[in-house]
C-alpha cells in the first residue's frame, strides 16, 4: 500500500524538475540574445577608409644631374686698330644686339683725312714725274743704236723711268695706308651677337689694340656642367640636356663636347652644352640665362624599366620609406622600401614591394602595423570591410 501512496509525489517531483530545467534553458537563451549586440559592437572597427593601388612597371628615363655655370659660347674682343685717335661717338650700349658690320663707335677723322689728302697729292706728283720719265725713256729707246746719244745717257733715262714708276707705287701704298686708317675711324662689329661689355667713353684717346667692347658671338650661350670622371664616361656628344635657371626657367640643350682632361685635384671634368631654346613658349633664353649664372642641368642618358607607385603611397619615418600593404583580412602591414627616381607624381620602388601587392594609396601616415581598414574600390566606390563575427545566439536563432 505504501508503494502506491508515494507514486503521485514522485511524479510531481519529476515534473517540477523538468519545468525548472526548461525555465533555465529559456533564461539562458534570452540572456545570450540580449548580450549579442554588445559582443558584435566589440568587433574591431576600421581605423581608416582607403583605396588601394598596385605597383606598375614602366619605362623611365635615366637622368644625370649636375651643376655648372652659364657662359658665352665665344666672346670676341673689339678694340681700336688706329693709334692715337679720339672717340667721337658710341653707337651701341651694353646688352644691345648687333649685326655683323654694324657701326659700334666713331673716331675723330680730321687728322686722318688730312693725311689722306697729303698722300693723294704725293701720288699725283709721283705720277706726273713718272709720265715725264716714261716719255724720256721712250725717246732713248727710239734712238738707241743710232749713235745720236751716248749709251750712258740712254741708261740714265731708262733708270729715271724705273725710279719714277717705283715712286708712284710707293705713293699709292702710302695713300692706301691712309685710306685704311680712315676706314678704321669707323669701328664695326666683326660678327653678329650681343654687347656684353663696353669700356670705351666719348672723348677718350685710345691706343691701337685697346679693348672697347666685348661681344657674345651670335648670341650663343652654353652651360658648362661639372661631373665626376666616372659619370663623364657615360656621356656622349649630342645627348639632350635640360638646364634650369635659378628663376625656374628651363632651356633645352645638347652636349657639344666633353673636356679632354679632368681636374687632377677634384677628379671632375666638364661637359659643354649648347643652350638652344627655352622649354616653355614665350620665355626668352637671353632673358632667363646670363653668362656667369649658376644653373642645374639634367642629362638624359637613356631609359630603363621601373616599378612605380604614387608618391602619396610612400610614408617617410625616421629617415626610412615605408608602404602599407592591405591583407585579405583588411589588416595592414608595414613594408620598408627602397625608393629611387621621381617623375611627376610617381616614385620608383627599387625593393620591398611585389607587383601583386595591394598598397594603401594615400593617408598611410595615419596607419600603424595591424590596423584594420575599410577599402573603397576606385572603380565602383563601394566600401568593403571585414565581416563582423556572428554571435552564438544569432547563429542559434538563424
What do you see in this structure?
By secondary structure, the chain is an alpha+beta fold. The protein contains seven helices and 23 strands. The strands form five sheets. Strands 3-12-15-14-13-16 form a six-stranded antiparallel barrel. β13 (240-244) and β14 (250-258) form a beta hairpin. It starts with a helix and ends with a helix. 20% of the residues are buried.
Helix-strand layout with pairing:
Blueprint: H1 2-5, H2 7-41, E1 48-50, E2 52-53, E3 56-72, E4 75-79, E5 85-90, E6 97-98, E7 103-107, H3 110-143, H4 151-183, E8 186-188, E9 193-198, E10 205-206, E11 211-217, E12 221-228, H5 229-232, E13 240-244, E14 250-258, E15 268-278, H6 285-288, E16 294-310, E17 315-317, E18 320-326, E19 332-343, E20 346-351, E21 359-360, E22 373-376, E23 383-384, H7 392-397
Parallel strand pairs: 1-22
Antiparallel strand pairs: 2-21, 3-12, 3-16, 4-11, 5-7, 5-10, 6-9, 7-8, 9-11, 12-15, 13-14, 13-16, 14-15, 16-20, 17-18, 18-19, 19-20, 22-23
Helix pairs in contact: 3-4
